[in-house]
Amino acid sequence: MPIIDHHFFPLCIPRDLSSNRFSGPLPAALAKLTNFTLLKLSDNNFTGTIPKFISQLTQIETLHIQGCSFEGPFPSSISDLTQLIDLRISDLKGDAVSPFPQLMNTYQIVQLVLRNCHINGTIPDYIGGHTSLRKIDLSFNNLTGEIPSSFSSLSHADMYVNYLQLYFLYFYLTT
After folding, report:
1. How many CA atoms, within 13 angstroms, populate the side-chain half-sphere of residue 24?
2. pTM of the predicted protein model
3. pLDDT tens for each residue of 61-115
4. Coil, strand, or helix at residue 26?
5. Distance between CA 104 and CA 125 in Å, rounded?
6. Looking at domain 23-174, does it have CATH number 3.40.50.360?
7. What residue stretch is flagged as signal peptide (predicted)?
């Protein structure tokens, strides 16, 4: 069932659109919802990539885009969402590879789930400086290197990364 541009509940748009069997591209009309603080799109059948207009939702605190059939690459425009507290993006389709997103200005972030997003490279050191983090899931990506030593300040966080790195994480948190 496609979401129809400009006719989808013109006065009252629900913020949780998860599990509705929506299909097709995400309507550009959603870019006008600049006062939204929560948007959940998970478990639908959208097509194409995550649109760049997502970056226009500058007040967004909770953004869930999990299991939506979107294709990669991971949108770099996510870095514009500095109010994020809960970011969950997972299961991007295709073979497009992306670098780790620039999230250095998301100081309030509590949950960071970027699972199976075809992210490659190393985990940036600044992520460990986000001391409000309580859950980090970077599993099923193409990350290399060790977990940054700055992660030792995240002793109260649940972390999921590549199997090879779990040993290093355990070492940091127990020594």
Report:
1. 8
2. 0.83
3. 999 999 998 998 888 889 999 999 999 999 999 999 999 999 999 989 999 999 9
4. coil
5. 10
6. no
7. none
